[in-house]
Design brief:
Layout lengths: L7 E9 L3 H15 L5 E8 L6 E8 L2 H9 L3 H11 E9 L2 E4 L2 E4 L1
Antiparallel strand pairs: 1-3, 1-4, 2-3, 5-6
Length: 108
C-alpha cells in the first residue's frame, strides 16, 4: 500500500434513552451539517431490527483529517450536545481495506 491517504469509515453506535423518532430528527439535523463538510463521502443511519432504541451510523470520509476538521468545527458542538441529550454512543474509526460497491470487490 502506498502513502496516499486512505478513506476511513467512522462507526458510531447509539443507544437512545428517549423516543427513537426524536433521535432520528436530531440526527437528521446533524447529518445535514456533516454532509456540507469537505471530505465526507456518504453516511447511513440504521436502526437495530430487534431493539428500536439502538442505532448505528456509518460514515465514509476521504481521510481521517477531513473527519477531524469536521468535528472540530465550532458549529458541530451544538449538534453533539443535542444528540448527547437523547442517546449514549460509542464510536471507532476504521481504515478501509476492501469494499464492495456496484458488483465489484476492490482492495484499498
Amino acid at each position: 500500500m502506498d502513502n496516499q491517504p486512505t478513506s476511513v469509515t467512522f462507526v458510531n453506535r447509539f443507544t437512545v434513552t428517549g423516543e427513537p423518532k426524536e433521535f432520528e430528527e436530531a440526527f437528521a439535523r446533524t447529518a445535514e451539517f456533516m454532509t456540507r463538510q469537505p471530505g465526507i463521502l456518504g453516511y447511513t443511519l440504521s436502526q437495530d431490527t430487534e431493539d428500536p432504541q439502538r442505532f448505528v451510523n456509518i460514515a465514509r470520509w476521504k481521510n481521517a483529517q477531513s473527519l477531524r476538521a469536521a468535528v472540530s468545527d465550532p458549529g458541530f458542538q451544538s449538534h453533539v450536545g443535542e444528540l448527547r441529550k437523547l442517546a449514549t454512543s460509542e464510536s471507532r474509526l476504521y481504515a478501509e481495506r476492501q469494499r464492495y460497491l456496484d458488483g465489484g470487490v476492490t482492495a484499498s
